[in-house]
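Here is the promised in-class demo. Please do not try to memorize the tokens; focus on the logic of going from shape to residues.
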């Protein structure tokens, strides 16, 4: 499936451009591409901080890991997603 270049560009624009590789990718652009491809979560950029994470979550209509943790589900069901936060549509 081809990546959406405009979405990759928008995500890359939000990233801090430190090219630090702390996310596990060779730089901010490859990390943005991995996010769009579904290969990386949005919480792997320590230099971006909470504000960047929140901006990415809004842009991609995802919940932040902090929100999921705040409403952690402990039901133990095999199909449990680990959070009581509803999936975004």
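The designed amino acids, position by position:
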């Amino acid at each position: 499936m081809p990546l959406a270049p405009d979405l990759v560009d928008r995500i890359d624009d939000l990233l801090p451009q430190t090219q630090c590789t702390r996310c596990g990718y060779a730089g901010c652009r490859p990390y943005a591409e991995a996010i769009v491809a579904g290969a990386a979560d949005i919480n792997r950029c320590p230099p971006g901080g909470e504000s960047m994470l929140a901006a990415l979550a809004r842009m991609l209509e995802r919940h932040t890991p902090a929100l999921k943790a705040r409403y952690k589900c402990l039901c133990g069901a095999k199909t449990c997603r680990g959070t009581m936060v509803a999936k975004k549509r």
